[in-house]
Design a protein that fits this description.
Helix 1 (12-24) links the parallel strand 1 and strand 2. Helix 9 crosses helix 11 (323-338). With 339 residues, the chain is α/β, with parallel strands linked by helices. The strands form 4 sheets. A 7-stranded parallel beta sheet has the order 3-2-1-4-5-6-11, sandwiched between helices. 41% of the residues lie in helices and 17% in strands. The relative contact order is 0.15. It has 11 helices and 13 strands. The chain binds uridine-diphosphate-N-acetylglucosamine. Uridine-diphosphate-N-acetylglucosamine binds next to strand 7, helix 7 and strand 8.
């Protein structure tokens, strides 16, 4: 059976993608994770939801020797979906070198592995943060990239460039780079969701933790030049993001790609302000959320949302869930954690 390696498979987007792959494809899935910001319990949740089993390997992708020892013997690898990376904008501002080391070294090692093993297909987790403060909204894949606002965003810009040059050097190698906007929410069953080991920095887990009294929400800035003064983001349900990976993989395996490097925005196309996101949570939960207004957070862009036309037409992808579904599922997951 052909194998797909999923790096960061115990993480937030990785675990949701393994669920969709197990349910919608016939590959043998192997998850690779070092649990630096996740835990093996994610695998139990995947098995519970899908009623299927899969292999997992604990491995730090920054360690080339560990990759050789653990992965070189694997045969029939049809592709790699590479999620494993650090993803906190504020942490990257505090410790840039950690971010460059972890996110770039792991990518380089994995591409070396692809070279050694002649792996034909690769899907890379990129981010809308590569656009910086774009001149034009919504952003299309052609929108020029501005200066990265954080080291995290810069690791994604550099990662994309590394893959671009790698593809030029290896015409047989096929890559898709997916620029996620703001993935949020949880599996609609409420049985799997975001579960970072470290304190979350992202808005939605902070909202749901605040609602159960385990965190306190500070809204970062109310003086942005937007319709209500709050930052605008394109929140996208994590299962829609996961589904896009299944479709991108099909696209590569069925050789529908016209060039060996393709790039897609993954967002709903709808901009939602921080205050609108809070209002959606309050609506679906029936709770009044306590919060304070704070200063702007370093590294934040003002507003960004996607033109998702290209992913819809070429990958045949259509996001299914709206902001209320995202908040409802995230809330269900949080309540499940409390039970
Ligand atoms: C960024 C990237 C996104 C990436 C994510 C990974 C951009 C535009 N997006 O998301 O592609 O997947 O990093 O972490 O760069 N906020 C508060 N209070 C909080 C937390 C957040 O007000 O306690 C606000 C932020 O200022 C921001 C919004 O909520 O306006 C979303 O923040 P967050 O969830 O951290 O994601 P981004 O940094 O936008």
């Amino acid at each position: 059976m052909k194998k797909i390696l999923v790096t960061g498979g115990a993480g937030y987007i990785g675990s949701h993608t393994i669920i969709e792959l197990l349910l919608k494809s016939t590959y043998e899935i192997i998850s690779i994770d070092n649990f630096s910001n996740s835990a093996p319990a994610a695998y139990d949740r995947i098995r519970q939801i899908t009623n299927q089993n899969f292999r997992s390997i604990q491995l730090n992708l920054c360690d080339q020797n560990a990759i050789s020892q653990n992965l070189d013997a694997l045969e029939n690898i049809e592709g790699i979906i590479h999620f494993a990376a650090f993803k906190s904008v504020p942490d990257s501002v505090k410790d840039p070198i950690l971010y460059y080391h972890n996110n770039i070294e792991s990518l380089n090692n994995l591409l070396k592995f692809c070279e050694r093993k002649n792996i034909p297909n690769f899907i890379f987790s990129s981010s809308c943060s590569v656009y910086g403060n774009a001149d034009q909204l919504p952003v299309t894949e052609q929108t020029p990239l501005k200066k990265a606002e954080s080291p995290y965003a810069h690791t994604k810009q550099v990662g994309e460039e590394i893959i671009e040059f790698f593809c030029q050097a290896h015409p047989q190698f096929n890559a898709v780079m997916l620029r996620y906007f703001n993935p949020v929410g949880a599996h609609m069953s409420g049985l799997n969701g975001e579960m970072p080991i470290s304190k979350p920095n992202n808005l939605v887990p902070i909202i749901t933790q605040t609602a159960v009294g385990k965190n306190s929400l500070t809204v970062f800035g109310n003086d942005y030049p937007t319709r209500d003064g709050y930052c605008i983001r394109d929140y996208i349900h994590v299962t829609d993001i996961a589904d896009a990976h299944v479709k991108a993989l099909d696209y590569l395996v069925q050789k529908k790609n016209k060039t060996n490097l393709s790039l897609y925005n993954l967002g709903t196309g709808i901009g939602v302000s921080v205050m609108e996101a809070i209002a959606s949570f309050e609506k679906v939960s029936g709770l009044k959320l306590p919060y304070t207004i704070g200063v702007r957070r370093a590294g934040d862009v003002i507003a960004v949302y996607a033109d998702n036309t290209k992913a819809k037409s070429e990958l045949n992808w259509l996001p299914q869930y709206n902001i209320d579904d995202m908040m409802q599922s995230a809330w269900k997951w949080q309540q499940n954690l409390e039970a």
